[in-house]
Design brief:
This protein has helices at about 10-20, 25-35, 35-50, and strands at about 25, 55, 60-65. The chain has about 70 residues and is α+β, with helices and mostly antiparallel strands. The protein has a three-stranded antiparallel β-sheet with strand order 1-3-2.
């Protein structure tokens, strides 16, 4: 039986920005979240509709927000 876990898109967006990359792929995100690349692609599309990322190519999304600089 598969287990469903709900995680807010804001939390995932903060994870993406904390990865320190300008671009993220579904494969990158799937490794961080422990989900399939297909699920990661769906999450990235949802983040895109909310303005957190922008599609850069078929496989990569550009991160539109940056994590705050350490003080």
């Amino acid at each position: 039986m598969s287990e469903k876990v709900l995680v807010s898109l804001e939390f995932i967006a903060s994870l993406v920005t904390s990865m320190g990359k300008n671009y993220v792929t579904p494969r990158d995100l799937s490794r961080v979240l422990g989900v399939s690349t297909r699920s990661a692609g769906r999450i990235l599309r949802a983040l895109e509709t909310r303005g957190y990322v922008e599609r850069y190519s078929n496989r990569a999304y550009r991160v539109m927000m940056r994590a705050p600089a350490p003080s």
